[in-house]
Write a structure and sequence with these properties.
heterodimer; A: 327 residues; alpha/beta; two-stranded antiparallel sheet; globular; B: 332 residues; Rossmann fold; 2 domains; seven-stranded parallel β-sheet; five-stranded parallel β-sheet
């Protein structure tokens, strides 16, 4: 029994989730600039680089400019994503000066030549989407499983091609494209087959496939057999009863039993202490497991600029040096 | 307006209501975490309970009105309700029967009702008390369910089961059929009275009546509907005292339906439904009458189709639903 660790996978631990494009409600525009990524990729003090901070970034497009959903989290929020929406997500991912480009640029400032892992979330091909768009002269219909596979393979190939093209334009960067993330937690039978097909395709590129799921969602226990290389457990803890410390510990026990990593969910709209609670529990429990962090857009910059102690706490946590904060 | 439905799909109703709202230009999403062999997938997002919890902060922000189903909400212990209420967003709770049916109330006017799959009465009371402390408006499908929830909520609205009737062409039973096919589709045999139905069928068979019988189980709703089309007689539920989804589906297909309609409830429907009422005591006689009367089967099929067009057709139900939303404070 052991948590999934970064070292066994040859990866950098502590991956910051970077949602981009529009927020779910469409109101917020999310583009990660060098300025926003710098205090996350490096630990700063008075604008000086003190240390590296997060070991990786995971980019995920939520809602496209068109209002169509790209991420699985947008199920039910507006229309399902068409090819146009996916193309907008790709274009914005590689927008000069932002997101991927900003990540590679800022990675050059990492002390001790520490590599910065790059992950990209897969869009979710919603099964209700019947007219996705023309790919290779054919209109894809996501009621047809093969078309969902075709679309996702196209996405993977586009990201890989564009990443290596961009990589040439940013000399000396320390970014390493590690792979893709499947962020739909529960899997239908069709999703399961789709994930397996995409895992093979991702592996053919020499990359890894990560799955972020909630509290042992259905099929999580067979996730490695499906082809996922990393499985992460989000304890689904909003910081309010009936979920409590015991709940998170149960989640981590399961993660440990099944060799999962953990996802730290720092949603602030329900309880601002959510991320602190998770760090408090994690420091005695799963602090050294492979972990990803879901925090509100640009929150790391906010904390840094406001001298919020959470900035220091989080840095300490990622270094395994966090001590429980009472309160 | 943006409406969210969840988290339990019963008889395909979340999806169909969501579709009806979308047809009216309203943004509507339905999340379902209750997955059965019925395999509902149209106009709903099949997720799990944890995904709904995960989505809750965004759902809270994005949607303007909350339509809950089957005495369940988005977070455990109804912890989501204070957040929704604090934002002044309208909420309605749609009860479907087995989530609130207690034997004490159900058996007042019905010696046959089976409540073995309902929660214990104390739990029902606790749930309804908690829900109605936060939600003022409940929806039920008929006056059978009304009686369980009316002591709790400030307002209880009747909303008939919805069906996109025009999407389904009727297939009236042939008056020339000499070996009628009797169809019964019990999702829960104890609740539907299947044992009595099958005893009556067996008796008819033994007595030499030319009949065919098919029990539909463990089949997706889409597959089952294709089979209903072949039926000459459909037996719905003969214990509960009111009719359910199977009756509405069968009537939409122009099939004669047998089911138990309580005498005290008949005047409370907008029009007495053209369902041949039968209970365990007389199911044999009622079945025999229909088995031997092809013309009656055909006539009842036509009446049933007209009835669902008038009261269960989706646009008709959606108009009523929008009135309920308005009563709950939504700006529609």
């Amino acid at each position: 029994m052991a948590f999934l660790t970064a070292s066994e996978l040859g990866l950098a631990n502590h991956v910051l989730h970077c949602p981009y494009l529009r927020s779910m409600n469409g109101a917020e525009v999310r583009r990660w600039s060098v300025n926003e990524l710098r205090p996350a990729v490096m630990y700063l003090h008075q604008n000086e680089v003190v240390d590296s901070f997060f070991g990786g970034l995971l980019f995920e497009a939520d809602t496209a400019w068109s209002g169509e959903g790209v991420s699985s989290k947008t199920l039910g929020f507006g229309r399902p994503g068409s090819l146009t929406a996916w193309q907008q997500a790709l274009d914005d991912l590689f927008l000069p000066g932002f997101n991927m480009d900003a990540a590679l640029q800022v990675s050059r400032q990492r002390p001790f030549q520490k590599l910065l892992d790059i992950w990209v979330a897969l869009p979710y091909p919603q099964p209700a989407q019947q007219a996705f768009g023309l790919l290779d002269g054919r209109m894809l219909n996501f009621r047809v499983q093969e078309d969902r596979i075709t679309a996702l393979k196209w996405w993977v190939d586009q990201v890989v091609t564009r990443y290596y093209a961009l990589s040439q334009l940013v000399p000396g960067h320390l970014g390493v494209l590690r792979g893709f993330a499947w962020t739909k937690s529960s899997l239908s039978d069709e999703d399961e087959a789709l994930a397996s097909a995409i895992a093979k395709h991702v592996h053919a590129h020499g990359l890894k496939l990560m799955w972020i799921q909630n509290y042992v969602s259905g099929k999580a226990l067979s996730g490695y057999n499906m082809g996922f290389d990393l499985i992460l457990m989000r304890p689904t803890y909003l910081g309010i009863p009936p979920r409590d410390e015991k709940w998170v510990r149960y989640a981590s026990m399961l993660a440990e039993a099944y060799r999962f990593g953990m996802t730290m969910w720092g949603e602030e709209r329900i309880n601002p202490r959510q991320i602190l609670d998770l760090m408090n529990i994690g420091q005695a429990d799963f602090m050294h497991a492979y972990q990803t962090y879901e925090l509100p857009y640009s929150r790391i910059l906010d904390w840094y600029v406001r001298n919020d102690p959470l900035y220091v706490y989080l840095y300490a946590y990622t270094k395994g040096a966090f001590a429980k904060i009472p309160g | 307006m943006r409406v969210v439905h969840g988290p339990i799909e019963i008889a395909g109703q979340m999806g169909i209501l969501s579709k009806g709202l979308q047809d009216r230009g309203i943004t509507s999403a339905a999340y379902n975490n209750f997955h059965t062999y019925l395999g509902y997938r149209d106009y709903i997002h099949n997720v799990d309970a944890f995904e709904i919890e995960y989505l809750f902060p965004d759902v809270l922000e994005y949607f303007d009105a909350f339509h809950f189903h089957y005495a369940s909400t988005m977070l455990p212990e109804f912890r989501d309700l204070p957040y929704i209420k604090a934002l002044g967003k309208p909420m309605v709770m749609h009860h479907w029967g087995n989530d609130v049916r207690t034997h004490a109330v159900a058996s007042r006017n019905n010696p046959y009702v089976y409540t073995g799959d309902s929660p214990p009465p104390e739990q029902v009371h606790q749930t309804l008390t908690a829900l109605s402390s936060m939600i003022d408006h409940a929806i039920v499908q008929d006056y059978e369910v009304y009686s369980y929830v009316s002591p709790y909520y400030k307002h209880v609205h009747i909303l008939p089961i919805a069906m996109d009737v025009t999407a389904r062409a009727p297939s009236y039973p042939s008056t020339l059929e000499t070996t009628p096919l009797i169809l019964h589709a019990p999702t829960n045999p104890a609740f539907k009275g299947t044992i009595y139905v099958e005893a009556a069928v067996e008796r008819l068979r033994v007595e030499g009546f030319p009949i065919r019988y098919r029990r539909i189980e463990q089949m997706s709703n889409a597959e089952a509907l294709a089979l209903y089309r072949e039926a000459d007689i459909v037996v719905d539920q003969i214990l509960c005292g009111s009719y359910g989804m199977l009756a509405v589906e069968a009537m939409s297909l122009g099939k004669p339906v047998i089911g138990f309609i309580r005498e005290d409830l008949k005047p409370l429907y907008p029009e007495v439904p053209p369902i041949v009422s039968a209970n365990p005591a007389n199911i044999y006689e009622v079945l025999k009458q229909l088995v031997t009367s092809p013309l009656l089967r055909h006539q009842l099929g036509e009446q049933g189709r007209r009835y669902v067009e008038k009261y269960h057709h989706l646009p008709v139900v959606i108009e009523r639903l929008l009135d309920i939303y308005r009563a709950a404070g939504a700006v529609v």
